[in-house]
Write a structure and sequence with these properties.
27 helices; alpha/beta; four-stranded antiparallel beta sheet; 783 residues; eight-stranded mixed beta sheet
Length: 783
């Protein structure tokens, strides 16, 4: 997740306070556009970390390139009207947003097959970066070019204390904060992704019109004592560039780690990640505002304070789960619950983000920037900071989390900041008492860093999912949990934190051991009660397939469903699972449930998002596509509930094939379920709805769903249970005719890539105490 970079502006005599307002709007539009881009890009890369990485990479590469290019043109005197040039660039940003929204799917159809020709994961990953850059880099470059243009406008004023840069940085961040708050809670749910990009266009068009009404003098009219020395990088300039790079790298390594951990502590919905982003921006805003108000610190003291803040945050990540057990925790209201999560996010992130965010605006007040005609250096500093952000984000995503782990990574950041503090202190040649105090504080910091450890069981307990209530245990049919311990812990940038917990539960007067698979503390499956539902995910749609040649399972889970597919007689089974931790856990801890199905030669495991597999591998067709992904309210899950997914799946289905889509019935309302059913019906002529093993299932096909002669006996023989098929037939809640009648009567929202309605609507039920499962069963059973 990236942060829209600020462009300094001032309310000098040339244009009054308008430049501040205009660049606040630029920050708003930039961050809103980034959120929209990320939603679309995940459709190319899959709902994995690659989507966020592509956007971060493209954004900051564009910022760096745009700043460098505009700075070079200004230095040569090639831009005569910088304010108007800035307005023109903003308009082009808006136009490019609209072009992106309307041209994305066409581009997707052209680029996606090229990924399928690359077998090696590294080659495919690099190709996705190239494809993402092709689509996002032009817009990001236009955004980055505005920094030196506005800097050149402001450079006409005679202020020399540097506050104007920090003030502008804060104003721009305020606009980004507004987008971070209003985007997920108001704009995106009401306007959709495409509508939000239209809003970006309207915003940038206003900026364009406003710049045409403001005075804009030629930079050639300025003069100053150092005009003839522009472009000379002295020692101070090189130090500023190095510090700008380092501040961006450290901050974005930290932000990647925070994003990763927020999934475990606040949940994996779109709102949880938005809360994290908002608090990051609030921290940056507070840091910039402090600098703008003149509250500066010496470098050694600032770095040591940063180290202490990160250390305090580190110690709080696992303990934050306990806040969801407090008696005062709100329940029953979505907005109260989200406000509480915002508070938890603020306590965790804002102190560290504020202090780390103080570094770059402090650099903007450096004496090296006070001389007239130095705005070109600001462009280079923005370039260096953008490259640092890019480097830090990639380092965090692909090195720190998978190879080091988040716990050790945060400790490394504390050690690095402490070492930097001591280095700057040594260069300052302080008095002996100051040295002694600094060494004592640094020693205490390092000692705490070495001794403190996370309670991994607490960190991944999932208390945040239902705010500490016992519903999770009840859902697992565990009336009394006697003891539990962590068997497996795995971190990955894609897939989050995967754990396996072994519990001893009291059942019918005896102790029973059960293993539970979780992602970020959210239940994914176990080896006790979930087997019936997983049989249904495979068996129910298999009643109506014409052939048993090849099946695709989207979402591995415990691997039981894959085993059932083989048991039913499918000659080949493809499994799409993007979380490596899930794959390892299924093989190592649930082999007794899946019978080591992944070692079967006819089972092909692809570490890939299921939709992206269908998008890129166009040579394979399937007789059955069955989805068993995580809860529908997880961020990115809507990608396989959109009409575009069903259209894609239909193109990959052989004649007479069937699609099964799992739909949860708990913590979700009838309108969301109806939307999922109606969206499938918009593509497939025959859609029915089933309830089996406590789960809802959509069955969609291009042919009437009637049992062929001998099918029931065949399925019974494969499963070894003569009565199983008869029991399953009675699990149908709505026939195809009843589904058609429901769609005509209710006219549910059709979920698309452009509105992503389910992604924003489904999480609103998580905190509800109402028995939605019973309500939904009663409603759909009456249809």
């Amino acid at each position: 997740m990236s942060v829209a970079r600020a462009v300094p502006i001032e309310d000098g005599r040339v244009a009054g306070g308008w430049p501040f307002a205009l660049y606040a709007l630029s920050g708003f539009a930039g961050l809103l556009a980034e959120q929209g881009f990320e939603k679309y890009v995940t459709l190319l890369t899959g709902a994995t970390v690659s989507g966020a990485a592509v956007v971060i990479f493209s954004y900051f590469l564009g910022f760096a390139a745009g700043s460098a290019l505009a700075g070079a043109l200004l230095e040569r005197g090639a831009i005569r009207r910088p304010l108007r040039a800035y307005g023109t660039l903003e308009l082009l940003v808006g136009v490019s947003c609209i072009g992106f929204a309307f041209g994305f799917h066409c581009t997707l159809e052209v680029l996606a097959p090229l990924q399928g020709q690359l077998a090696h994961p590294v080659a495919k990953f690099l190709a996705r970066f190239v494809f993402g850059s092709i689509m996002i880099l032009p817009t990001a470059t236009l955004m980055g070019a505005s920094f030196p243009l506005i800097a050149h406008v402001v450079d006409r004023d005679d202020e020399s204390d540097g506050r104007r840069w920090a003030r502008a940085y804060a104003v721009n961040l305020a606009g980004a904060c507004a987008a971070a708050l209003l985007g997920p809670y108001a704009i995106l749910p009401s306007l959709g992704v495409r509508g939000s990009l239209w809003l970006c266009f309207v915003t940038t068009a206003f900026v364009f019109v406003a710049t045409r009404s403001l005075p804009d003098c030629s930079p050639a009219a300025r003069s100053g004592p150092d005009v003839g020395t522009r472009g000379v990088l002295d020692t101070d300039a090189w130090l500023l560039l190095a510090a700008s790079f380092a501040s961006g790298a450290i901050f974005f390594v930290s932000e990647v780690l925070w994003t990763h951990l927020v999934g475990a502590v606040l949940g994996s919905s779109i709102y949880a990640f938005s809360s994290m982003l908002l608090m990051v921006l609030v921290g940056l805003l507070l840091g910039a505002w402090r600098v703008q108000r003149g509250a500066t610190m010496s470098s050694p003291f600032l770095l040591q304070c940063c180290a202490l803040a990160v250390l305090g945050q580190f110690r709080s990540w696992d303990l934050a789960q306990l806040t969801f057990l407090l008696p005062a925790v709100p329940s029953g209201s979505f907005f109260l619950a989200e406000s509480f999560k915002l508070l938890v996010a603020a306590l965790l992130i804002v102190p560290s983000a504020t202090l780390l965010g103080t570094i770059f605006p402090s650099l903007l007040r450096s004496p090296a920037l006070r001389a007239p005609g130095r705005s070109w250096l600001l462009g280079l500093m923005n370039t260096a900071n953008a490259v640092g952000c890019l480097s830090g984000a990639l380092l965090g995503l692909f090195v720190m989390i998978p190879l080091v782990g988040s716990e050790a990574s945060l400790k490394m950041i504390v050690v690095s900041l402490t070492a930097g503090s001591l280095l700057f202190l040594w260069r300052a040649r302080p008095s002996p008492p100051t040295v002694a105090a600094a060494l004592a504080l640094a020693s205490l910091t390092l000692l705490c860093t070495a001794r403190w450890r996370w309670d991994r069981s607490l960190l991944t307990s999932g208390l945040n999912v239902y705010f500490g209530r016992a519903e999770q245990a009840a859902a697992l049919d565990h009336p009394a949990r006697a003891a539990s311990h962590l068997l497996y812990f795995h971190e990955a940038a894609q897939g989050g934190i995967t754990t396996v917990v072994e519990s001893t539960v009291a059942r019918d007067g005896s102790d029973v051991r059960t293993r539970t698979l979780l992602t970020n503390g959210k239940f994914q499956g176990n080896d006790v009660r979930e087997g019936e539902a997983q049989v249904g995910f495979s068996l129910i749609p298999s009643q109506f397939v014409r052939r048993f040649d090849r099946a695709l399972l989207i979402g591995l889970g415990t691997g039981h469903s894959a085993f059932v597919l083989k048991q039913l007689g499918y000659e080949e089974v493809d499994v799409a699972e993007y979380a490596p931790g899930i794959v390892e856990a299924a093989a190592a801890y649930f082999a007794h449930l899946n019978q080591n199905v992944l070692s079967d030669r006819t089972v092909r495991l692809v570490l890939e998002d299921g939709r992206n597999l269908l998008l890129t591998d166009r040579a394979r067709t399937y007789d059955l596509i069955t989805t068993e992904i995580t809860s529908i309210w997880f961020a990115g899950a809507t990608n396989v509930y959109a009409i575009e997914f069903y259209e894609l799946a239909k193109r990959r289905m052989a004649p007479g094939a069937v699609l099964q889509q799992w739909v949860q019935l708990h913590h979700i309302g009838r309108h969301e379920i109806a939307s999922a059913i109606a969206t499938a019906r918009a593509v497939f002529p025959y859609v029915s709805f089933w309830y089996f093993g406590g789960q809802g299932m959509i069955v969609a096909s291009d042919h009437p769903q009637r049992l062929e002669a001998g099918r029931e006996a065949y399925l019974a023989s494969r499963l070894g249970s003569a009565g199983e098929s008869g029991r399953i037939l009675s699990a149908r809640l709505m026939s195809a005719e009843q589904v058609d009648a429901m769609v005509r009567e209710l006219k549910p929202v059709i979920n698309t890539d452009h509105n992503r309605w389910i992604e924003y609507a489904a999480p609103r039920y998580n905190i509800s105490r109402y028995d939605w499962r019973a309500d939904n069963l009663a409603f759909f059973d009456r249809r």
